[in-house]
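Input/output pair, single chain:
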Amino acid sequence: MGSVTLAELRHGLRRWLAPAVAVVLGVAFLTATLAMRSTLNATVERFAAAQVAGADAVVSPPGKSSSTTGLTADQLQTVRQLPGVTQVDVEQSATTTVRGPDGAPLDVVARTVDPDQVDLLSGRTPAGPGQVVLSESAASALGATTGSVVTVGGAPGRAESRQVSGIVRVPGSTGVAVVIGTSGELTRWSGTTAYDALLVRAGGDQAATADRLRAALGSGVTVRTADAEIAARVDRLVVGISQITMFFAVFAIVAIFVSALVIANTFQILLAQRSRQLALLRCVGASRRQVTRSVVGEAVVLGLLASAVGVAVGLAPVAALAAVSDTVQLVQLPIESLRVSALELLVPVAVGLTVTVLAALQPARRASRVAPLAALRPELSGPAQTRASRLRLLAGGTTGALGFTGLLVSALRGEALPAVLCGVLSFLGVVLVAPVVVPLLARGLGRVARVAGVPGDLATDNTVRNPRRTAATSTALLVGITLMATMLVGAQTSRAAIADAVDSQYALDVSLDAKGQAVAPALVERVERIDGVERTARLRAGKVSVGGSRAAREQTVLGLPSDATAVLRDPSVVTAAAPGTVLVDELSAADLGIGDGDPVRLGPVTLTARVTDRSLDAFVVTAQDLARIAPDAPVAALWLRLSPGADAGQVVGAVQRATAGTEVEVGGSAGARAELDNLVNLMLAVVTGLLGVAVVIALVGVANTLGLSVLERRRETALLRALGLTRRQVRRTLAIEALLVALVAAVLGTALGVLYGWAGTRALLGTYAAGAVPQLPWLLLTAVVLAAAACGLLASWAPGRRAARTSPVAALAAD
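Output:
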């Protein structure tokens, strides 16, 4: 039977192309995930080793390598005076401020970095105390270039004017604004005297050096040998890599699952077409076991070859990433070369082979049941099965009901893990009942298709004549579309829920606060003219003496004008501010000993306190009361409300540029919403791209099913041609058939995606999304449906072209 297996593979090479492509794509996805993990782990190990290079032991704060308290100067001195210690290098970091050539401030991370661990992009390392090196992110944000003069440091440190001598790329800090200096410079700039780690060189045994350090420093620090420190740093750094790997692995599983559906459907169709051939083998003496072995053998050969190709395809993008990472810094650490173990190459092959064999096993068993006398029948294939198993329907209905019920309960309770498990269970129920649901939906959509005449009628009948085949083909596409719709609806609903939570906590889009000082009138007018600003409110403020039962202090008091509520997203924040009252936040009230309803003396005026749980930067009174408290109070704050549809990031950036060089602080929720939008958009782009692989595999399955159906219905098509059906009508029939399958998957997948997206948001965000309703991105969901329809039509092109070329006379000829 081995020769029969190989002969069948050679003879039907084109028929095996689609399942081979499905296996290649699924295995390639898994291979790329494993190879990327291995390569990044090797990169992290190299990076950690470079940080500790030359040291025999490392001293760090207890429990971790860096801390807010850090190591002290006394501990550094103790280590330096230890006998046998030849050198102690200091690792130190702190936050400070750098002002660019235009005076605009930027919060940066100041670090001590070995010059050998950075990539010099332009200029050179500092030649003297008047120079400094910036990371490319810091230089870009400040608008600084080599030779520019910047001011580094500030309260509580000391500001110093420095010339930028060079711009560098700092591995591990991509996108982070960094200024590099010595330990003494960091202390002056930031006022920080703590150290993150001490790298000790003693020139002896690492363990002995670590023991001497522990004896000298006591239990208040962590001392590791250099090798142990490298392992500890790798463990911390690979946490993010493991999370990324798990993220990609989920989509690899989805791709492999879709591949399994395509493979099973292909084997089912091919073996149905070969029923006469298999019956003839039974007639000439082949047993049922031999027939099964022959079919499984075909699956083994297909799985091995396609998996091998898939491994090569999966390694290619990782190798390309390693080749260009030093140039475009696609990851935070430069990748020098592709690193992958033999096991990580064998696992994808084993997975691809196993999935292919398991997907083909049930069709193989069904094929072995072909009776020998079936060879005498004139049909090309056995009759199509038109009724789904009652047991399957019962199991699917029960599973779906339990899954959807559990999903809704878990979502309303805010329980994420049970919601995920119930979501998977509910989708499994949908897959089980698909042979009933999909034909019903196809028949419903087919009523619209019947306006196309005979091709529409034929396409509808062909779609529902074999429910299991149609369901399997549609389910492969359903997986990808459901996940896409879930992400779109979930992202939109999450965006709205989080934005509502941000607005309820910070009801103001943008605020400008001069801390009780006057805002220049020219600055106010310039900000009010910025595109995207819909409304503004000018608020006067002054500093007065405030006393409570526990303490007294100078406090900024803000006067609320009558037009301020029109600027707020949530006017209830200040509705309690009535004449004769003062709004006090809970923290300030606790510090001063003020209770709700207590009289509070503000300068010459006594008002009644109203304590609020909202976060307030100042005490709030009405504008009329402020006029009595501080008659000469200047305009010290400006509240802005953005126009609907305005780009929050651009508006906030324009406001920050307008206030550059002043003491005015910019705040509000618009910046947070802009960051949220950017994060959601990035997530959607990545997820859509990853799910696109599963959709491509599913479309390969659609095209394959149509192509094999063309061969299966060759005599039927020829008879229709002989009765007057034109070639154009044949192509149109297959196009409508593919369109029905794609639209069924799109409609059902979108409906499921709306439910899963909303439920996932409720489960993940909990109380933040307690009142959330599904937010439907109609434009994007419509685009998904239209894209599915277009891809279905594209998938029908080659099969339709092949069917239209069928000669009626040749096809009607007996085999």
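The longest strand covers residues 533-547. The mean pLDDT is 79.
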